[in-house]
Amino acid sequence: MNYVKNLKTYLPFATNTFQRLISYKANVLIFIFGESLMLAVTYYLWKAIYGSSTGASIHGFSFNEMIIYLFISFLTNLMISVDIGSDISREVKDGSIAINLIRPISYEKRMLFQGLGTIFYNFIFIFIGTFLITTTMFYRFFGYISIVNILFYFISMILGILLNFYFNYIFGLLSFKITNMWGLSQITQAIVQLLSGIMIPIVFFPVWAQPLFKFLPFSSMIYTPTMIYLGKLNDFEILKALTVQGIWIIILILIAKIMWKKLIKTLTILGG
């Protein structure tokens, strides 16, 4: 009963976000065009790299595997993208957080369901079609499709969504103390893009740095699901990777709750 009550309370936040996004259909076309252009540039970059290589594979990746990696990492990044941090920062700057805090609902759950609205929108209008095309490409390249790997990919991606949400939520809570988050946001985004393996697999980094990068939560957001999809991890490695994701989620939840209790007491409301 409590679950149903929570769903009725917070589901409208997801629905409102979905309806707001769907009202701007041109944004999808612009987004697809921009990302397609980026993927095209990256494709020709890797094509040039493999063309100048003497071997058929680099760090265990063939050219076809790298192409699939780029597509799946792009889709995974799309699905986990819950930009809650900027939403919280905006509410703090314009003062609307004052009204939201006095509502008899959990601020954390509200932001989570807002993020789910964005995820659901991306899933319907971008992910499904592109994922089917990518999986078809995978079959044409390698002659098989692993349903088990796809299943574990989705499980890992869901964990990646929670990881990215709580990371962004924690980052957003910093705006309770730091008024202008723009500079810090740009630095953080650059670090996350580098360490999450969006464009460059972690195995391409120096050997001494790989254990550190794999330990940090960023690789669990994108690199782990993508490697599972490609079949680069065996059963034990998949179980280990999912466990690492689960542990980081618990750690980030605890950090978020501690930060909330500390920062909410000293929050200064700006704006009207």
From TrEMBL:
Transmembrane segments: 28-46, 66-84, 119-139, 145-169, 190-209, 238-260
Name assigned to this protein: ABC-2 family transporter protein
Keywords: Membrane, Transmembrane, Transmembrane helix
Pfam families from the UniProt entry: ABC2_membrane_6
KW Transmembrane (keyword) present: yes
Species of the source: Clostridium vincentii
Domain of life from the UniProt record: Bacteria
InterPro entries found in the cross-reference section: ABC-2_transporter-like
